[in-house]
Amino acid sequence: MKTINIALVPGDGIGPEVVAEGVKVLKAIERMDEHLSFSFTEFPWGCEHYLQEGKMMADDGIEQLKAFDAIYLGAVGYPGVPDHISLWDLLLKIRKEFDQYVNLRPVTLLDESLTPLKSRTEKDIDFLVIRENSEGEYAGAGDRLFAGKPEEVVLQTGVFSRKGTERIIRYAYEEAQRTGKTLTSVSKGNALNYSMVYWDEVFEEVGMEYPDVETYSYLVDAASLYFVNDPGRFEIVVTSNLFGDILTDLGAALTGGLGLATGANVNPEKEFPSMFEPVHGSAPDIAGKGLANPLAAIWSVSQMLDFFNEERWGAEVLEVIREIIKEKDNLTPDLGGKASTADVGGSVASMLESRK
């Protein structure tokens, strides 16, 4: 029996609702696969915890999470708690402490009815963005000098280490080689004459070890244009923390919105737990109403299964999501349906079990 120990951090707003549906799907898989088991331990951390305790997570929260194989995060953010506190004191803290230096965001159109791009099909929009997830523009380095004075200066420093830059680029080359896909690097070397010139140099340097991988390199502004008018040219994309953050939300807009946007924060060596999450945010305005779309959270379950070498189940979950999307009656209002959050999760679980 293979047991995967999962720490649940449902978080804020709609987070608990969508995480519950992901857990429902995992329990359905457990019922069908006698060789696979999941254990769940829930942690009440997030903005409500901050408002009560003055901190986003327990002081020894990182130590507590170390014991788990994976972290399943719902959402972080709530009115009254500054975004930089909710982000840096929970989500980014976990990413950095557990060296989750790979962020995986699929930009995959599951049904052509979901894209705002005319005449585009599932074959035209299907690629993976590999985002550096530990440093770069989100390293937290900088300073604020002479605050409140006319000569006030604010410095936000991007950090691009040899270790950090090379390992994410090498990970992307390995993935491209393994899958036989093209690899595109996105940077801004013409304007960022230190960090992005360095990125481009490392991309070329590492690429010499992978002569069989076909590569492209675009400036981020050009890449943004191509995401919209020619998404079919991308198969695997590797880019920095900031550019990846922005481009993947653009990718979500092309494939049905943030209700279908999923992300994996991965420590490939499995020295620390990896974290899987929908990236739609906490949406406090619809929390508790059963309106939240749980498909992104369920898609992150598929990513979790893939990461733990349960690709068959990962593919099954994603295929059921595709089928659900074609049945409008089983969708939440954001996708044109009338189903509740729990209805959608239940439908996914039932359809999985019917495919056994």
Per-chain topology:
Blueprint: E1 2-11, H1 15-32, E2 36-42, H2 47-53, H3 61-65, E3 70-75, H4 83-97, E4 102-108, E5 126-132, E6 136-145, E7 153-159, H5 162-179, E8 183-187, H6 195-207, E9 215-219, H7 220-229, E10 236-239, H8 241-254, E11 262-266, E12 274-278, H9 295-307, H10 311-326, H11 341-354
Helix pairs in contact: 1-9, 1-11, 5-6, 7-8, 9-10, 10-11
Give a description of the structure.
It is a single chain. The protein is α/β, with parallel strands linked by helices and 356 residues long. It has two domains: 1-101 and 267-356, Isopropylmalate Dehydrogenase; 114-256, Isopropylmalate Dehydrogenase (3-Layer(aba) Sandwich), CATH 3.40.718. Helix content is 40%, strand content 22%. It contains eleven helices and twelve strands. The strands form two sheets. A ten-stranded mixed β-sheet has the order 2-1-3-12-11-4-5-10-8-9, with helices on both faces. Strands 6-7 form a two-stranded antiparallel ribbon. Helix 7 runs parallel beside helix 8 (241-254). The longest helix has 18 residues, at 15-32. The chain starts with a strand and ends with a helix. The relative contact order is 0.17.
